[in-house]
Automatic annotation (TrEMBL):
Protein name: OsmC family protein
Coiled coil: none
A Pfam family this chain is assigned to: OsmC
Signal peptide segment: none
Domain of life of the native organism: Bacteria
Length: 162
């Protein structure tokens, strides 16, 4: 039997402003994402859908999940390939396209823009190439139905920073 891993979270709506959902415009979209032993994530809807812009929304969390999974697998692949990464930062971008009726939409693309710093100039080509191998093993990338593109940049650690 295949190994399985489970992930249990709770979502608690905190946006009842008194009349509940008596009207679309009278309740807050605020909620918390909870997991045992972890601090809550303050969340809401996208501001375009009456959400609080100061809170995380589901679309941002999905893009963040794609970027996190890519980074974690990329670092693993680098470690096993002998590529020493000393810094990693990603500026991921997700696109949601609304359907023609305006009643729904879907994430249609995520672009990852990882900026990687390696310890040795001889590692740059391999470091760049390993981004292309992540999609085959990343749990999140393998689970979504939209394309994920990579626009990586690889830098070498300055001797002054070492």
């Amino acid at each position: 039997m295949a190994d399985t891993h489970t992930y249990d979270i709770a979502v608690e709506w905190t946006g009842d402003l008194g009349p509940g959902t008596a009207d679309y415009r009278v309740y807050s979209r605020d909620h918390e994402v909870l997991a045992a032993g972890k601090p809550p994530i303050a969340a809401s809807a996208d501001p375009a859908f009456r959400g609080d812009p100061a809170r995380w929304n589901p679309e941002e969390l999905l893009v963040a999940s794609v970027a996190q999974c890519h980074m974690l697998w990329y670092l693993h692949l680098c470690a096993t390939a002998g590529v020493v990464v000393v810094d990693y930062e990603d500026h991921a971008h997700g696109v949601m396209t609304m359907d023609e009726t305006g009643g729904g939409g879907r994430i249609t693309e995520v672009v990852l823009r990882p900026e990687v710093t390696v310890a040795d100039p001889a590692m740059t080509d391999k470091a760049r190439a390993l981004h292309g191998e992540v999609h085959a093993v990343c749990f999140i990338a393998r689970s979504v139905a939209f394309p994920i593109r990579h626009e990586p940049s690889v830098h070498v650690l300055d001797a002054e920073d070492a």
